[in-house]
Amino acid sequence: MSFVSLRFLALLAASLALCFLLPKKVRWIALLAASVIFYAMAGAELLVYLASATLSTFLAGLVIDRLNRRRAAAAADAKAKGLQVTEINTAFTRKKRAAAAAALLLNFGILAALKYLDPFLGAVEYVSRIFGGVDIPRFTLALPLGISFYTFQSASYVIDLLREKYPASRNILKYALFVSYFPQITQGPIGRYDRLSPQFENLPGFNADALRNGIQLAVWGLFKKIVIADRAAVIADNVFAGYDGYGGVIILFGVFVYGIQLYCDFSGGIDMARGISEMFGVELAENFRRPYLATSLADYWRRWHITLGEWMREYVFYSITFSRRFGRFSKKLRTNLGGRAGKVLPTALVTFVVFFLIGLWHGGSSKYIAFGLWNGVIITFSQLMAAPYAAVRARLKISDSSKLLYAFRLLRTLLLVTLGRYFTRADNLSLALGMLSQTFAHPGVSALSASSFLSLGLGGWDMGVLALGSAVVTIAGVYEERNHDLRAAICRARPVLQIAIMLAIILAVVFLGFYRSGYIPSEFIYKAF
Amino acid sequence: MNMDKILEIIRELVPGTDVAADTLLIEDEIIDSFDLVALVGELSDAFDVQIGVESVTPENFETPSAIASLIERLREG
Amino acid sequence: MSAKKWLIAFFGCVLFVLLLIAGLNFFVDPFGVFGDRFMQWYSFDFTNNPRAAKTAYLDINSEQYDSYLIGCSSTSSFPIDSLNEYTGANFFNLFSYGADTYDMYATAMYVLDNYNPKNILLNLSIMNTYYYDYESDPLTDSLHAKVDGSSLLSFYLRFLFANPQYAFAKLSDLREDTYLPQTFDVFNEESGAYDKSVRDVESIGNMDEYLSAYPVFTDYPKAGYALKEADRCLEAVREIVERCERDGVTLTVVFSPLYYEHAEYFDADATRDFLARLADITGFWDFSYSSVSFDSRYFYDATHFRNSVGEMALSRIYGGEFYVPDDFGFYVTAENAEEYLSGYRTAETPDTGEYTAEVPILTYHHIAEGASSTVTSPEAFESHLSALIDAGYTPVFLSELRNYVLYGDPLPEKPVVITFDDGYLSNYEQALPILEKYGAKATIFVIGVSFGSDTYKDTGNAITPHFGLDEAQAMLSSGLIEFGSHTYDLHQWPPFEEGDARENLALRDGESESDYISMLRNDLEQFDSEIWSVLGGNSGIFSYPYGEVTTEAAVVLSESGYDVTVSTQPGVNTIVRGLPQSLLSLNRFTVDGSMTDADILSLIEGN
Questions:
Q1: What is the CA radius of gyration of chain B?
Q2: Helix residue ranges, H only, C346-468
Q3: Three-state DSSP class for A526?
Q4: Which of A240, A250, A332, C325 makes a 20 to 30 Å CA pair with C225?
């Protein structure tokens, strides 16, 4: 169910009221009830998937937790007797890993089956056709709401327990709330058990500040989503639907606008999720930190979809790089290659894996391999070039804090990010490559005019709204990038100004957002009758 | 002794640097993230310990002596 | 501002904005669901959502009506005035465009439940066997909640919070509103039917010209339809029939006329089967497939028959005088269904000669010695006339063309119409004797202001003398002359005018539509009161000065009872029985005094 619906508004109001009325100890039940209802509204039968993920990871958690405690006791015992603990640890680690692996395989298996089996079968079919093979039966199952998010979230719980980060949950209902928490289940941010569960235990009830902050954030997110992103989508859809008629500059513009769409839609949704959660007094992790103000591609990935990036770093990147096997492998590479390359390359390979997985997260398709390669190559290249680049700067006497350099880095990163979007948005790899080559081979600068921008599906008025909205978001971003707290600043403003801002955003959301579409001009109403 | 072996591993990883037991490895940018990855691998091999993600923190790798005490802890549980 | 105050301000702002939208939608009422009490622009409301707006309109105006037409958009084409005349009832056309069978059923039940109607005319279209209740836009296509029984609260909330652009559009369209219907107000609010005033004054005649104006008929979209909803359609009809019987309501069921290509998308056997089952439920008038189906000129577009075809259908049902082809319309009952349907859809493309006629019209002005575009000598005129008669032509009145088209009266084999413009005395003194000699008929177009005058009005300049009342009456009693209007004073002669001369009906620069229309009406009224009042009433025949035709003028003339109009465009006319528009803006060949007999004959025979 979308956040932008009357039914959701009713659910939100009811669960807020319930949460404010209930005594502190049981407030979390209001959230659990709201989460279950929210999920059931998307399709009650899909609750089975959610329940199986919850139950399996909860049970695995209990098993691992018990092993953790037994290991600690055994290690303490051995230490008291002056014996080595390494062997004891190794023995327990094997058992713990088995329990974790069972739960993770089950859950990632379901995820893979639902999300990737069909594209995989498609690929198999494609290959088998080349060799004159048989048709492969294809099927698509309904994808449970938020399966990627709750799978990753519950997986992190299991791995954290494996790493003995915290004791396991003893209450399956409270744990279920962590897995199914409704503000974040559809699009994140991906939460962590140790950050969320204490907050669920200590829900503040009615808190005017939290409610105000939550509303502000949610409305701001709504503004980004329905005023900006929904307009930008028209242009992006047009350009990606068929790029043949467009010159390179227009294509690049279209992909850039797609970037605006993606950011405003995704971060807008996250803002709404965080805002809604904040109304209950639960702070969700930050997922975006002004990614378009990044100075390098690596920096961008630390600012974009942060919770996914952190998840990948913590549970994939580190798991690989700090494993014994990888240690041996990287040593071999180091001794054989030597120098900086020998040092960087092993990690670079893992970087590729991570970006491939991030690509895969978005869906199963060959274009994501290209997407992973693109990001991996550039980040690796920039790591390799960091030292020579610094040397060049020193020789040219360009200060590291030069504004010009900063601007150059911003634009360069923006360009790299935009080029990467060719892969994620185009329908397939060959289309993405075709668009890329068109962009640079036929920029079509000479044919450019105001009307070429207006031929992308948005009229002058909507174009203006899109530009103005993007400007507002950019200004807000730059202000916060300079370490200012925009919300605090607004709260300090004079009441009249605050009400004016409030009214302006409400009017924008209502008239430029809600009522943007669904209007049929009379010549179309009556047409064909 | 552990410390000698640790210092030797670090010197091998970052040739041409003078490292002592109390050298600030991360703060003084003696090792970067790539070195850290390599270092973890070398240490686990050399001391036959499992250095998990949870142990790879700035505090544990602040100085060679911090690393030594980490290894000590991991060996003794 | 404290957080609490902020929250109060926030919810206050939200409430304010909601009230703003609701207020706008309530007062402007672009869908008419709140009764449109402030703007009362129902033709606009009907256009936006005919279903809901008509229901709300009836809430207020139901006492004006006692009978209802129900069905999809083709239902619009049964002319209400004729229907009222035939039945003595007051019909309201409750049709809505795109109406599916459920819309039709629910509307009928609503009317039966609430308005105790005398008559219901239920127009079934073949599409009713295809769509039962298809998904539609909640604002523009939805039924009123009172009709479909859904929640009134959610219905009114939906329209209270409808996209404000509809309200804005209504306000801005109000400024653009004109006398003629536009895309935003295609309805006539009193009858509930489409306002076809413009489409119905289009001049239609020649088939090739028609097809090039409406290429849809040459490239009719190919699609296959099944009668997949026939069962539910019949069930709906059965319920309506039973209910009408119980309530003593006169129900007339019509299966509406179809363009043949449209009809043929539906399997013939399945259609026959459907009609047989329909006959078991109720007797009904079948107009679906006849000679009319084959002539695209009888259709506005491929799925909508013309008002004049509706006129034919009513004439068949109620035994009127309006022309009806023999094979058009049959009352099917359970008893005769089998026999009738055995011949259903076997008709072949009819011979157009049976219902169309080619008619040339000649224009003369002054008959006197000399030869110019407006002067023909008596000798030349007589020679022309005798040549025509020798060539087999029979001069007829324009009113005879009307009788042919409207009532199916016969015309001679080779009809020709002789007309005189302006009303010169020479028409009486020179032309009449020649006409009498040959027993030939002619139509004279009189300019009202110069009737009986030999000086220009006001300025007194001498002009060619015009005949007056005495001569006119003598001509009428000869039985060879009929009169038409050439305007009262909209054919002015600039050299003799003091101000800006109005030479023809063209709209002047900067002239407002309403000024123009009232100017036209005044002129027509003056002609009525000074000329028609003494010449036996309005003949309904009109000649456009200099052949200058405007849409507004065509509409005003039609409203004022002029149904035969002529222009100066050269060409032979094709007139079509049952198609009154074939009498509009008729082509005429202007005869130059220097023309020989052969010139005239080659002119009208097109070689």
A1: 11
A2: 378-390, 398-407, 425-426, 432-438
A3: coil
A4: C325
A392-429, pLDDT tens digit by residue?
888 888 777 788 888 999 999 999 888 888 887 877 77
> How confident is residue C27, by pLDDT bands cut at 50, 70 and 90?
very high
Task: Flag whether pLDDT at C257 surpasses 90.
Answer: yes
Question: Mean pLDDT highest for which of A35-49, A325-339, C590-604?
Answer: C590-604
CA B13 to mean position of chain CA atoms = 11
Give φ, ψ of C416 to 5 degrees. -140, 150
Overall average pLDDT of the A368-390 stretch: 80
**How would you classify residue A154: left for phi > 0, otherwise alpha for psi between -120 and 50, otherwise beta?**
alpha
Most confident of A184-193, C196-205, C580-589: C580-589
β-strands C330-332, C284-286 pairing: antiparallel
User: Positive or negative CA dihedral for C451, C452, C455, C459?
Assistant: negative
C562-to-A209, A483, C53, C566 alpha-carbon distances in Å: 77, 81, 34, 11
Please check the confidence at residue A134 and state whether its pLDDT lies above 70: no
Return contacts of C429-436, CB within 8 angstroms, 24+ apart: C430/C367, C430/C368, C430/C378, C430/C381, C431/C364, C431/C367, C431/C378, C431/C381, C432/C475, C432/C478, C432/C480, C432/C481, C434/C378, C434/C381, C434/C382, C434/C385, C435/C385, C435/C478, C435/C480, C435/C481, C436/C478, C436/C480
CATH of domain C354-605: 3.20.20.370
Phi, psi of C460 (to 5 degrees): 75, 5
Question: Region A428-439: what's the mean pLDDT?
Answer: 82
Cβ atoms of residues A111 and A149 within 8 Å: no
Among C138, C133, C170, which Cα is nearest to C154's? C138
Which string of DSSP letters, residue by residue, matches B6-67? HHHHHHHHSTT----TT--TTTTTSS-HHHHHHHHHHHHHHHT----GGG--TTTTSSHHHH
The set of residues, in sequence order, having a beta carbon less than 8 Å from that of A40 and lying 6+ positions away, is A47
Phi-psi region of C350 (alpha: psi -120 to 50; beta: other; left: phi over 0): beta
Residue type, A272: M
Q: Which residues of chain A from 398 to 457 reach within 8 Å of chain C, CB to CB?
A: none
> CA–CA separation, A109 vs C421, rounded Å?
93
Residue A51 distance to chain C (closest CA, Å) = 35
pLDDT band of A347, cuts 50, 70, 90: confident
Q: Which residues of C touch A507 (CB under 8 A)?
A: 17
Domain spanning B2-76: which superfamily? ACP-like (1.10.1200.10)
Q: Which helix (H) or strand (E) covers residue C34, if one does?
A: none
Q: How far apart are alpha carbons C449 and C455 in whole angstroms?
A: 11
- Give C314's contacts (C-beta < 8 A, 6+ positions apart): C78, C79, C82, C83, C86, C320, C322
What's the pLDDT band for A528 if we cut at 50, 70, 90? very low
CB contact under 8 A, C73 and A499: no
- A219 and A509 Cβ atoms separated by less than 8 Å: yes
Nearest CB to B75: which of A86, A324, A383? A86
Whether residue A189 has a cis bond before it, omega within 30° of 0: yes
- Residue of chain A with shortest Cα separation from C303: A529
Q: How far is C303 from chain A (nearest CA, A)?
A: 9
The answer to ipTM > 0.90 is no
- Chain-wide mean pLDDT for chain A? 85
CA-to-CA distance for A481 and A427, rounded, in angstroms? 34
| Contact flag B50-A90 (C-beta cutoff 8 Å) | yes
pLDDT value of position A136: 61
Nearest by CB to residue B45, choosing from A79, A84, A328, is A328
Using a CB-CB cut-off of 8 Å, the residues of chain C touching A209 are 3
Can you tell me the distance from the alpha carbon of A271 to that of B45, in angstroms, rounded to the nearest whole number?
45
